[in-house]
Amino acid sequence: MAVFLGAIKKLAKRNKDFRRELATNAHSQLVLMCLEPDEDIGEEVHEEVDQAFVVVKGKGEAVLDGVRRPLRKGALLIVPAGTRHNLVNVGDQRLRLYTLYAPPQHPPGTVHATRAEALAAEAERAATTDA
């Protein structure tokens, strides 16, 4: 079990990695994210994973089943399992946030400095899972 007690806003504001896992338990996971201007997380659907996003800095947009909604500092977005979603940084500075997955989505210790690195790791993981 990974207990997390920390200044999450401060950690999220300092994070420069696209994805950085902070704590993983049997039923949940805490991950920091940072999107560069005009970057997005990539459209995805987690069939059995609920996800919550909290924006701590920047300006973004959530695309939920094709519907766009603004995301600003302090926003909480809860995405139920099965919902097609994407987050886009529409500002001119980094969009910093943290996300909670339930159940966990990424291996403990995951750090992806860039979106390209995250995509490559996910493709590799899918290839080994399908093999």
Structure characterization notes:
The chain is of the alpha+beta class. The chain has one domain (8-130): Sandwich (Jelly Rolls), CATH 2.60.120. It contains 2 helices and 9 strands; from the N terminus they run H-E-E-E-E-E-E-E-E-E-H. It has a 6-stranded antiparallel β-sheet. The N and C termini lie far apart (30 Å). The relative contact order is 0.26. The mean pLDDT is 95. This is Cupin domain-containing protein. Residues 32-100 form the Cupin type-2 domain.
Topology:
Elements: H1 8-14, E1 19-24, E2 29-35, E3 50-57, E4 59-64, E5 67-72, E6 76-79, E7 85-89, E8 95-102, E9 111-112, H2 115-130
Antiparallel strand pairs: 1-2, 1-9, 2-8, 3-6, 3-8, 4-5, 4-7
pLDDT below 50 for ≥5 consecutive residues: which ranges?
A: none
User: What is the C-level CATH assignment?
Assistant: Mainly Beta
As a whole number of angstroms, the C-alpha radius of gyration is 14 Å
Overall geometric form:
globular
Main sheet?
A: 6 strands, antiparallel
How many β-strand runs? 9
Largest beta sheet: strand ordering:
6-3-8-2-1-9
Distance between the termini: 30 Å
Mean pLDDT: 95
Residue fraction in strands: 35-45%
Domain Cupin type-2: 32-100
InterPro entries: Cupin_2 (IPR013096), Flavonoid_dioxygenase-like (IPR052538), RmlC-like_jellyroll (IPR014710), RmlC_Cupin_sf (IPR011051)
Protein name: Cupin domain-containing protein
